[in-house]
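Morning F.,

Quick status update on the modeling queue. The single chain you submitted on Monday has been processed. Sequence for confirmation:
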Amino acid sequence: MKNRALIIAISVSLFAIVAIWIGSRKPETPIVTRVGVGTFSQAIDYGPVYVARHFGWFEEALSQVNGGDIVYLELGGFDEIQTALGQGKLHVFFSAEAPAIKLVSDRQRIRIVEIGCTLQQEILVRKDRNINSIADLKGKSIAVAEGTSSHYGLLNILSSEGLTADDVTLRPGFPGVAKPLFETGGVDAWAVWPPFVEQELIAGRALTLSGGKARIQSVISLSQTLIDQNPRIGQAMVSAVQRAKAWMRANPDEAITIVAQTLRLKRAVVELAWPKHNWGAVLDESVLADIEAKAVFLKEVGVIVERASVPTRSELLDLRYSGQ
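Structure tokens below.
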């Protein structure tokens, strides 16, 4: 009886110990097995994602971590982006810096982690309007997508010649609206990004004005979920982008072909735009300061809503992946 009682006591003790151990274990971090790689519309400055996708480098990088699938998304608006983030379907996001800042201010859990490229902001003017300098824009009408990097860049370029928004007539509109407006003579000028600049130049309808140093930063953001729960996957995705950037610098002709085919653009359009893109850009202090300045600007023009504050650098950025 004593032996039996001892065995029972030991068994109960072991059971209790196991139960306590199981109860104290932290739940395993769920591994993302389907990584959503998305772009905000299409743009030449998303070249690294197009090249990495062409060669299967995202898939290769993911297989070296834990395997899984890549799902490519082209997102057309903020509602679509926010839904994809909320449903856990978007993990790696390519955009200009302004949309990323807007998303953070809207309490979306993403961070800018790397830069794809930088490019110079340009202003197109119609050839038939006798506009030959920034100063000549005074009193003219200019189309621009409100609350974008181009809007910020336009105001900075005007400022370089002592002009303000009050000296011109701004016609808000994204390319779908602004392009036909410009081509039919509804506006005198258009502040926009590639490939729209190059399409108008090649068509012979426009020229660009020199002056100003405003830049557009094309950035890569990761969802906070991926950063917190699956950092190795996040690093694998960023590494694929960095690999693509290096390859593009070494193989520009092939890269131009890949981007032109992906975007269904004439090669001449992409070829003309290519030198304007710095594929060797890094998240250095000048880029970081420019991103912060645009966050303040977006608040000033109302893109960041009144109830929200301007995101801080730590809220916008996570530099562990960029090596900066």
